[in-house]
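haha ok so turns out i had the wrong file open the whole time. this is the CORRECT one, sorry everyone. sequence first:
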Amino acid sequence: MSYLHPDRLFDPDPTVRDLARELYTSVKDLPLLCPHGHVDPKLFSLNEPFPNPTELILIPDHYIFRLLYSHGVRLEDFGVPARDGSQVETDHRRIWQLFGDHYYLFAGTPTGVWLDAEFAEVFGISEKLTAASAMGIYDQIAEKLQTEDYLPRSMFDGFNIEVLATTDAPFDTLEDHVSIRDSSWEGRVIPTFRPDAVTDLAHFEWHENIGKLGDVCGYEITSYATLIQALEERRVFFKSLGCTATDHGVESPLARRLPDSEAEVLFQRALKGKIEPEQARSFTAHMLMEMARMSTEDGLVMQIHPGAMRNHNRAVFERFGPDKGGDIPLKTEYTHNLHELLNTYGNDPNFRVIVFTLDETTYSRELAPLAGHYPAMRLGPPWWFNDSVQGMTVFRERITETAGFHNTVGFIDDTRAFPSIPARHDVSRRVDANFLAGQVARHIMDMGDALEIMHSLAYGLSKQAYNL
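then structure:
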Protein backbone atom coordinates (compact mmCIF):
# COMPACT_ATOMS: atom_id res chain seq x y z
CA MET A 1 0.00 0.00 0.00
CA SER A 2 1.40 3.40 -1.00
CA TYR A 3 2.27 5.92 1.69
CA LEU A 4 1.52 8.73 -0.77
CA HIS A 5 -1.74 10.66 -0.38
CA PRO A 6 -3.92 10.39 -3.51
CA ASP A 7 -4.73 14.13 -3.34
CA ARG A 8 -1.15 15.29 -2.91
CA LEU A 9 -0.39 18.73 -4.35
CA PHE A 10 -4.08 19.64 -4.59
CA ASP A 11 -5.57 22.64 -2.82
CA PRO A 12 -6.98 21.89 0.67
CA ASP A 13 -10.15 23.80 -0.23
CA PRO A 14 -12.63 20.98 -0.95
CA THR A 15 -14.23 22.70 -3.95
CA VAL A 16 -10.90 23.18 -5.73
CA ARG A 17 -9.60 19.80 -4.59
CA ASP A 18 -12.57 17.90 -6.00
CA LEU A 19 -12.28 19.68 -9.34
CA ALA A 20 -8.52 19.11 -9.43
CA ARG A 21 -9.00 15.41 -8.75
CA GLU A 22 -11.44 15.13 -11.68
CA LEU A 23 -9.14 17.01 -14.03
CA TYR A 24 -6.11 14.99 -13.01
CA THR A 25 -7.97 11.70 -13.35
CA SER A 26 -8.87 12.61 -16.93
CA VAL A 27 -5.19 12.68 -17.98
CA LYS A 28 -3.21 10.65 -15.46
CA ASP A 29 -3.01 7.62 -17.77
CA LEU A 30 -2.16 9.47 -20.98
CA PRO A 31 1.13 8.51 -22.68
CA LEU A 32 4.24 10.44 -21.65
CA LEU A 33 5.94 12.67 -24.21
CA CYS A 34 9.57 13.41 -23.30
CA PRO A 35 10.83 15.78 -26.02
CA HIS A 36 13.85 17.04 -24.07
CA GLY A 37 16.07 15.13 -21.66
CA HIS A 38 19.47 13.62 -21.04
CA VAL A 39 18.86 9.89 -20.60
CA ASP A 40 21.66 7.84 -22.19
CA PRO A 41 20.30 6.02 -25.28
CA LYS A 42 22.77 3.21 -24.58
CA LEU A 43 20.37 2.01 -21.88
CA PHE A 44 17.88 1.04 -24.58
CA SER A 45 20.29 -0.17 -27.23
CA LEU A 46 21.91 -2.64 -24.81
CA ASN A 47 18.81 -3.29 -22.67
CA GLU A 48 20.92 -4.78 -19.89
CA PRO A 49 19.86 -4.93 -16.22
CA PHE A 50 20.63 -1.83 -14.23
CA PRO A 51 23.60 -2.64 -11.99
CA ASN A 52 22.22 -1.41 -8.66
CA PRO A 53 19.94 1.27 -7.15
CA THR A 54 22.80 3.68 -6.49
CA GLU A 55 24.02 3.83 -10.08
CA LEU A 56 20.48 4.00 -11.41
CA ILE A 57 18.91 6.57 -9.10
CA LEU A 58 21.60 8.56 -7.30
CA ILE A 59 24.83 9.04 -9.24
CA PRO A 60 23.28 10.37 -12.50
CA ASP A 61 21.08 12.96 -10.73
CA HIS A 62 22.78 16.21 -9.80
CA TYR A 63 19.54 17.36 -8.17
CA ILE A 64 20.35 14.81 -5.47
CA PHE A 65 24.04 15.18 -4.84
CA ARG A 66 24.18 18.98 -5.18
CA LEU A 67 21.99 19.34 -2.10
CA LEU A 68 24.05 16.79 -0.18
CA TYR A 69 27.23 18.60 -1.24
CA SER A 70 25.83 21.82 0.22
CA HIS A 71 25.70 20.01 3.58
CA GLY A 72 29.28 18.81 3.46
CA VAL A 73 28.90 15.44 1.75
CA ARG A 74 31.88 15.05 -0.55
CA LEU A 75 31.13 14.02 -4.12
CA GLU A 76 33.90 11.41 -3.79
CA ASP A 77 31.94 9.80 -0.97
CA PHE A 78 28.81 9.78 -3.14
CA GLY A 79 30.57 7.86 -5.90
CA VAL A 80 30.59 10.66 -8.49
CA PRO A 81 33.37 9.78 -10.96
CA ALA A 82 36.41 12.08 -10.98
CA ARG A 83 37.77 13.38 -14.27
CA ASP A 84 41.30 12.17 -13.49
CA GLY A 85 40.17 8.67 -12.62
CA SER A 86 41.20 9.01 -8.99
CA GLN A 87 39.60 6.91 -6.29
CA VAL A 88 36.01 7.60 -5.26
CA GLU A 89 33.63 5.51 -3.15
CA THR A 90 32.59 2.33 -4.98
CA ASP A 91 30.60 0.61 -2.25
CA HIS A 92 27.10 1.28 -3.56
CA ARG A 93 25.42 0.12 -0.36
CA ARG A 94 27.49 2.55 1.67
CA ILE A 95 26.58 5.38 -0.73
CA TRP A 96 22.88 4.50 -0.43
CA GLN A 97 23.09 4.54 3.36
CA LEU A 98 24.76 7.96 3.18
CA PHE A 99 21.82 9.07 1.04
CA GLY A 100 19.35 7.64 3.55
CA ASP A 101 21.13 9.37 6.42
CA HIS A 102 20.56 12.71 4.69
CA TYR A 103 17.17 12.10 3.09
CA TYR A 104 15.54 14.54 5.50
CA LEU A 105 17.25 17.34 3.56
CA PHE A 106 14.87 16.81 0.62
CA ALA A 107 11.68 17.57 2.56
CA GLY A 108 9.73 20.30 0.77
CA THR A 109 11.90 20.14 -2.37
CA PRO A 110 10.79 18.93 -5.81
CA THR A 111 13.46 16.24 -5.62
CA GLY A 112 11.83 14.88 -2.47
CA VAL A 113 8.41 14.87 -4.15
CA TRP A 114 9.79 13.05 -7.20
CA LEU A 115 11.77 10.51 -5.18
CA ASP A 116 8.85 9.65 -2.91
CA ALA A 117 6.66 9.02 -5.97
CA GLU A 118 9.44 7.08 -7.70
CA PHE A 119 10.00 4.77 -4.76
CA ALA A 120 6.29 4.19 -4.16
CA GLU A 121 4.95 3.95 -7.71
CA VAL A 122 7.86 2.70 -9.80
CA PHE A 123 9.41 0.31 -7.28
CA GLY A 124 6.40 -0.45 -5.06
CA ILE A 125 8.09 0.62 -1.82
CA SER A 126 5.54 0.86 0.99
CA GLU A 127 7.55 2.80 3.58
CA LYS A 128 9.28 6.17 3.58
CA LEU A 129 13.03 6.31 3.09
CA THR A 130 14.87 7.07 6.33
CA ALA A 131 18.27 6.27 7.76
CA ALA A 132 16.74 3.19 9.39
CA SER A 133 14.84 1.94 6.32
CA ALA A 134 17.52 2.78 3.72
CA MET A 135 19.17 -0.63 3.38
CA GLY A 136 15.89 -2.54 3.36
CA ILE A 137 14.66 -0.30 0.53
CA TYR A 138 17.97 -0.72 -1.29
CA ASP A 139 17.56 -4.50 -1.17
CA GLN A 140 13.97 -4.34 -2.41
CA ILE A 141 14.94 -2.19 -5.40
CA ALA A 142 18.07 -4.24 -6.13
CA GLU A 143 16.00 -7.42 -6.25
CA LYS A 144 13.51 -5.88 -8.66
CA LEU A 145 16.29 -4.64 -10.94
CA GLN A 146 17.28 -8.25 -11.66
CA THR A 147 13.85 -9.05 -13.10
CA GLU A 148 12.71 -8.69 -16.70
CA ASP A 149 10.07 -6.12 -15.74
CA TYR A 150 12.84 -3.69 -14.75
CA LEU A 151 14.98 -3.93 -17.85
CA PRO A 152 15.30 -0.50 -19.49
CA ARG A 153 12.96 -1.27 -22.39
CA SER A 154 10.40 -2.88 -20.08
CA MET A 155 10.44 0.18 -17.81
CA PHE A 156 10.11 2.46 -20.86
CA ASP A 157 7.04 0.52 -21.97
CA GLY A 158 5.68 0.32 -18.44
CA PHE A 159 5.99 4.07 -18.02
CA ASN A 160 3.82 4.42 -21.14
CA ILE A 161 6.41 6.63 -22.84
CA GLU A 162 5.38 7.42 -26.39
CA VAL A 163 8.63 9.13 -27.36
CA LEU A 164 11.82 10.04 -25.53
CA ALA A 165 14.36 12.50 -26.94
CA THR A 166 18.00 12.40 -25.89
CA THR A 167 20.47 15.29 -26.17
CA ASP A 168 23.42 14.70 -28.48
CA ALA A 169 26.47 16.56 -29.71
CA PRO A 170 26.80 17.12 -33.47
CA PHE A 171 29.82 14.80 -33.57
CA ASP A 172 27.95 11.94 -31.88
CA THR A 173 27.82 8.92 -34.17
CA LEU A 174 24.32 8.11 -32.81
CA GLU A 175 25.24 4.43 -32.99
CA ASP A 176 22.89 3.64 -30.11
CA HIS A 177 20.01 5.30 -31.93
CA VAL A 178 20.84 3.25 -35.02
CA SER A 179 20.88 0.10 -32.91
CA ILE A 180 17.48 0.95 -31.40
CA ARG A 181 16.01 1.68 -34.81
CA ASP A 182 17.29 -1.60 -36.23
CA SER A 183 16.06 -3.69 -33.30
CA SER A 184 12.68 -5.38 -33.01
CA TRP A 185 11.71 -3.15 -30.08
CA GLU A 186 9.02 -0.58 -30.91
CA GLY A 187 10.04 2.07 -28.36
CA ARG A 188 10.64 5.47 -29.92
CA VAL A 189 13.92 7.09 -28.81
CA ILE A 190 15.09 10.01 -30.92
CA PRO A 191 18.14 12.31 -30.84
CA THR A 192 18.20 16.07 -30.30
CA PHE A 193 20.84 18.16 -32.06
CA ARG A 194 22.82 20.24 -29.53
CA PRO A 195 25.74 22.04 -31.20
CA ASP A 196 27.02 24.08 -28.21
CA ALA A 197 30.24 22.07 -27.95
CA VAL A 198 31.38 23.39 -31.36
CA THR A 199 29.54 26.73 -31.62
CA ASP A 200 30.82 28.04 -28.27
CA LEU A 201 34.39 29.07 -29.08
CA ALA A 202 35.13 29.35 -25.35
CA HIS A 203 34.06 25.77 -24.58
CA PHE A 204 36.77 24.07 -22.52
CA GLU A 205 37.05 21.22 -25.06
CA TRP A 206 36.35 23.22 -28.23
CA HIS A 207 39.49 22.21 -30.15
CA GLU A 208 38.95 18.54 -29.36
CA ASN A 209 35.29 18.80 -30.35
CA ILE A 210 36.07 20.44 -33.68
CA GLY A 211 38.39 17.52 -34.39
CA LYS A 212 35.63 15.05 -33.53
CA LEU A 213 33.21 16.87 -35.82
CA GLY A 214 35.72 16.64 -38.64
CA ASP A 215 36.19 12.94 -38.01
CA VAL A 216 32.49 12.09 -38.35
CA CYS A 217 32.14 14.35 -41.41
CA GLY A 218 35.23 12.98 -43.14
CA TYR A 219 37.02 16.30 -43.59
CA GLU A 220 38.86 18.83 -41.44
CA ILE A 221 36.93 21.79 -40.06
CA THR A 222 39.41 24.53 -40.84
CA SER A 223 37.12 27.48 -41.58
CA TYR A 224 33.79 29.01 -40.65
CA ALA A 225 32.40 27.86 -44.00
CA THR A 226 33.31 24.22 -43.35
CA LEU A 227 31.80 24.49 -39.86
CA ILE A 228 28.49 25.59 -41.36
CA GLN A 229 28.69 22.84 -43.96
CA ALA A 230 29.36 20.24 -41.28
CA LEU A 231 26.49 21.40 -39.07
CA GLU A 232 24.05 21.34 -41.98
CA GLU A 233 25.15 17.83 -42.92
CA ARG A 234 24.86 16.57 -39.35
CA ARG A 235 21.35 18.00 -39.02
CA VAL A 236 20.34 15.94 -42.05
CA PHE A 237 21.81 12.83 -40.41
CA PHE A 238 20.07 13.53 -37.09
CA LYS A 239 16.75 13.98 -38.91
CA SER A 240 17.22 10.61 -40.60
CA LEU A 241 17.11 9.06 -37.12
CA GLY A 242 13.95 10.87 -36.07
CA CYS A 243 15.33 14.11 -34.65
CA THR A 244 12.73 16.88 -34.49
CA ALA A 245 14.53 19.57 -32.48
CA THR A 246 17.75 21.38 -31.74
CA ASP A 247 18.83 22.67 -28.34
CA HIS A 248 21.07 25.58 -27.42
CA GLY A 249 22.34 25.98 -23.87
CA VAL A 250 23.65 29.53 -23.99
CA GLU A 251 24.44 31.91 -21.17
CA SER A 252 22.59 34.74 -22.93
CA PRO A 253 19.77 34.57 -25.50
CA LEU A 254 21.52 37.32 -27.50
CA ALA A 255 21.12 36.64 -31.23
CA ARG A 256 23.00 38.97 -33.60
CA ARG A 257 24.15 38.21 -37.14
CA LEU A 258 27.75 38.94 -38.10
CA PRO A 259 29.14 39.30 -41.62
CA ASP A 260 30.54 35.94 -42.72
CA SER A 261 33.95 37.55 -43.00
CA GLU A 262 33.88 38.56 -39.36
CA ALA A 263 32.67 35.11 -38.30
CA GLU A 264 35.63 33.66 -40.20
CA VAL A 265 38.08 35.93 -38.34
CA LEU A 266 36.68 34.81 -34.99
CA PHE A 267 36.79 31.15 -36.01
CA GLN A 268 40.45 31.46 -37.02
CA ARG A 269 41.29 33.18 -33.74
CA ALA A 270 39.70 30.27 -31.90
CA LEU A 271 41.73 27.76 -33.92
CA LYS A 272 44.87 29.59 -32.80
CA GLY A 273 43.74 29.70 -29.19
CA LYS A 274 43.48 33.49 -29.18
CA ILE A 275 39.75 34.02 -28.76
CA GLU A 276 38.60 36.55 -26.16
CA PRO A 277 35.43 35.98 -24.07
CA GLU A 278 33.51 38.84 -25.70
CA GLN A 279 34.47 37.58 -29.16
CA ALA A 280 33.25 34.09 -28.25
CA ARG A 281 29.94 35.57 -27.09
CA SER A 282 29.56 37.43 -30.40
CA PHE A 283 30.15 34.21 -32.31
CA THR A 284 27.59 32.34 -30.22
CA ALA A 285 25.04 35.11 -30.84
CA HIS A 286 25.73 34.83 -34.57
CA MET A 287 25.34 31.05 -34.47
CA LEU A 288 21.90 31.38 -32.89
CA MET A 289 20.90 33.30 -35.98
CA GLU A 290 22.43 30.64 -38.19
CA MET A 291 20.66 27.86 -36.30
CA ALA A 292 17.37 29.72 -36.72
CA ARG A 293 18.03 30.06 -40.45
CA MET A 294 18.70 26.34 -40.72
CA SER A 295 15.50 25.57 -38.81
CA THR A 296 13.43 27.53 -41.32
CA GLU A 297 14.93 25.31 -44.01
CA ASP A 298 14.90 21.86 -42.40
CA GLY A 299 11.98 22.23 -39.97
CA LEU A 300 13.84 21.31 -36.78
CA VAL A 301 12.27 23.04 -33.77
CA MET A 302 14.75 25.37 -32.07
CA GLN A 303 15.06 25.33 -28.28
CA ILE A 304 16.94 28.08 -26.45
CA HIS A 305 17.95 27.27 -22.85
CA PRO A 306 19.67 30.46 -21.63
CA GLY A 307 20.48 32.04 -18.32
CA ALA A 308 22.94 29.82 -16.46
CA MET A 309 26.46 30.52 -15.35
CA ARG A 310 27.91 27.10 -15.98
CA ASN A 311 30.33 25.41 -13.59
CA HIS A 312 30.21 28.17 -10.99
CA ASN A 313 32.17 26.02 -8.52
CA ARG A 314 35.54 25.77 -10.23
CA ALA A 315 36.93 23.19 -7.82
CA VAL A 316 34.02 20.84 -8.50
CA PHE A 317 34.26 21.44 -12.25
CA GLU A 318 38.02 20.80 -12.36
CA ARG A 319 37.74 17.59 -10.35
CA PHE A 320 34.42 16.17 -11.60
CA GLY A 321 33.62 17.98 -14.85
CA PRO A 322 30.45 19.73 -16.03
CA ASP A 323 26.84 19.01 -15.01
CA LYS A 324 27.65 18.43 -11.36
CA GLY A 325 25.21 20.88 -9.80
CA GLY A 326 27.40 23.96 -10.07
CA ASP A 327 25.30 25.79 -12.69
CA ILE A 328 23.67 28.88 -11.21
CA PRO A 329 20.78 30.96 -12.71
CA LEU A 330 21.43 34.48 -13.97
CA LYS A 331 19.29 37.53 -14.52
CA THR A 332 18.28 37.24 -18.17
CA GLU A 333 16.97 39.75 -20.73
CA TYR A 334 14.90 38.64 -23.74
CA THR A 335 13.20 41.63 -25.36
CA HIS A 336 16.35 43.23 -26.79
CA ASN A 337 18.39 40.03 -27.07
CA LEU A 338 15.82 38.20 -29.23
CA HIS A 339 14.75 41.27 -31.21
CA GLU A 340 16.82 40.51 -34.31
CA LEU A 341 16.02 36.79 -34.33
CA LEU A 342 12.28 37.31 -33.93
CA ASN A 343 12.15 40.11 -36.47
CA THR A 344 14.04 37.97 -38.96
CA TYR A 345 12.31 34.63 -38.38
CA GLY A 346 9.54 35.08 -35.80
CA ASN A 347 6.84 35.61 -38.43
CA ASP A 348 8.00 32.71 -40.62
CA PRO A 349 5.44 29.85 -40.70
CA ASN A 350 8.30 27.38 -41.19
CA PHE A 351 10.01 28.35 -37.92
CA ARG A 352 9.31 27.50 -34.29
CA VAL A 353 11.45 28.53 -31.33
CA ILE A 354 10.81 27.34 -27.78
CA VAL A 355 12.32 29.69 -25.21
CA PHE A 356 13.10 28.69 -21.63
CA THR A 357 14.15 30.73 -18.64
CA LEU A 358 15.62 30.35 -15.17
CA ASP A 359 14.61 33.93 -14.34
CA GLU A 360 11.01 34.00 -13.09
CA THR A 361 10.95 37.79 -13.16
CA THR A 362 10.79 37.67 -16.97
CA TYR A 363 7.53 35.69 -17.16
CA SER A 364 4.96 38.47 -17.28
CA ARG A 365 7.27 41.33 -18.26
CA GLU A 366 8.96 39.83 -21.34
CA LEU A 367 8.29 36.20 -22.20
CA ALA A 368 4.49 36.17 -22.10
CA PRO A 369 4.16 39.32 -24.26
CA LEU A 370 6.72 38.00 -26.76
CA ALA A 371 5.12 34.55 -27.05
CA GLY A 372 1.69 36.17 -27.03
CA HIS A 373 2.62 38.03 -30.21
CA TYR A 374 5.17 36.21 -32.40
CA PRO A 375 3.64 33.20 -34.18
CA ALA A 376 6.91 31.26 -34.12
CA MET A 377 7.58 31.54 -30.39
CA ARG A 378 6.46 29.18 -27.63
CA LEU A 379 7.38 29.15 -23.95
CA GLY A 380 9.14 26.19 -22.42
CA PRO A 381 7.98 25.18 -18.93
CA PRO A 382 9.90 25.86 -15.72
CA TRP A 383 13.13 23.90 -15.47
CA TRP A 384 15.90 23.36 -12.91
CA PHE A 385 15.09 25.10 -9.63
CA ASN A 386 11.69 26.20 -10.93
CA ASP A 387 10.41 22.76 -12.01
CA SER A 388 8.63 22.49 -8.69
CA VAL A 389 5.12 22.80 -7.31
CA GLN A 390 5.55 26.51 -6.59
CA GLY A 391 7.61 27.15 -9.72
CA MET A 392 5.03 25.59 -12.03
CA THR A 393 2.21 27.42 -10.27
CA VAL A 394 3.95 30.79 -10.57
CA PHE A 395 4.57 30.09 -14.26
CA ARG A 396 0.85 29.55 -14.93
CA GLU A 397 -0.15 32.54 -12.81
CA ARG A 398 2.17 34.96 -14.59
CA ILE A 399 2.05 33.63 -18.14
CA THR A 400 -1.57 32.71 -18.75
CA GLU A 401 -3.34 36.08 -18.86
CA THR A 402 -1.01 37.40 -21.58
CA ALA A 403 0.09 34.32 -23.53
CA GLY A 404 -2.71 31.88 -22.74
CA PHE A 405 -2.14 28.15 -22.44
CA HIS A 406 -1.56 27.34 -26.10
CA ASN A 407 1.61 29.42 -26.44
CA THR A 408 3.27 27.03 -23.99
CA VAL A 409 4.49 23.51 -24.76
CA GLY A 410 3.34 21.29 -21.92
CA PHE A 411 5.78 19.59 -19.57
CA ILE A 412 9.42 18.69 -20.23
CA ASP A 413 11.24 16.54 -17.70
CA ASP A 414 14.83 17.46 -18.72
CA THR A 415 16.18 14.55 -16.68
CA ARG A 416 19.20 12.28 -16.61
CA ALA A 417 17.54 10.05 -14.00
CA PHE A 418 15.43 7.68 -16.13
CA PRO A 419 13.18 6.21 -13.38
CA SER A 420 12.16 9.70 -12.23
CA ILE A 421 10.35 10.44 -15.51
CA PRO A 422 6.82 9.29 -14.56
CA ALA A 423 7.05 11.02 -11.17
CA ARG A 424 8.03 14.31 -12.78
CA HIS A 425 5.21 14.16 -15.29
CA ASP A 426 2.78 13.27 -12.54
CA VAL A 427 3.78 16.35 -10.54
CA SER A 428 3.20 18.56 -13.58
CA ARG A 429 -0.20 17.04 -14.28
CA ARG A 430 -1.26 17.50 -10.66
CA VAL A 431 -0.09 21.12 -10.56
CA ASP A 432 -1.82 21.99 -13.83
CA ALA A 433 -5.00 20.24 -12.68
CA ASN A 434 -4.94 22.26 -9.48
CA PHE A 435 -4.40 25.52 -11.37
CA LEU A 436 -7.25 24.83 -13.78
CA ALA A 437 -9.48 23.79 -10.89
CA GLY A 438 -8.92 27.21 -9.36
CA GLN A 439 -9.96 28.82 -12.62
CA VAL A 440 -13.15 26.77 -12.69
CA ALA A 441 -13.92 27.42 -9.03
CA ARG A 442 -13.65 31.16 -9.68
CA HIS A 443 -15.80 30.80 -12.82
CA ILE A 444 -13.06 32.10 -15.10
CA MET A 445 -13.67 29.05 -17.32
CA ASP A 446 -16.10 26.17 -17.25
CA MET A 447 -15.25 22.53 -16.64
CA GLY A 448 -15.59 21.60 -20.30
CA ASP A 449 -12.90 24.08 -21.30
CA ALA A 450 -10.73 23.01 -18.37
CA LEU A 451 -10.87 19.35 -19.42
CA GLU A 452 -9.82 20.20 -22.97
CA ILE A 453 -6.98 22.43 -21.77
CA MET A 454 -5.87 19.76 -19.28
CA HIS A 455 -5.49 17.26 -22.12
CA SER A 456 -3.48 19.79 -24.12
CA LEU A 457 -1.14 20.59 -21.22
CA ALA A 458 -0.56 16.92 -20.43
CA TYR A 459 -0.12 15.69 -24.00
CA GLY A 460 -1.31 17.69 -26.98
CA LEU A 461 0.86 20.79 -26.76
CA SER A 462 4.16 18.89 -26.58
CA LYS A 463 3.15 16.69 -29.47
CA GLN A 464 2.31 19.71 -31.60
CA ALA A 465 5.20 21.96 -30.56
CA TYR A 466 7.88 19.34 -31.18
CA ASN A 467 6.31 17.81 -34.30
CA LEU A 468 5.95 14.45 -32.57
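Strands lie at 32-34, 161-165, 189-190, 245-248, 301-304, 308-309, 328-329, 353-355, 377-379.
again sry for the mixup
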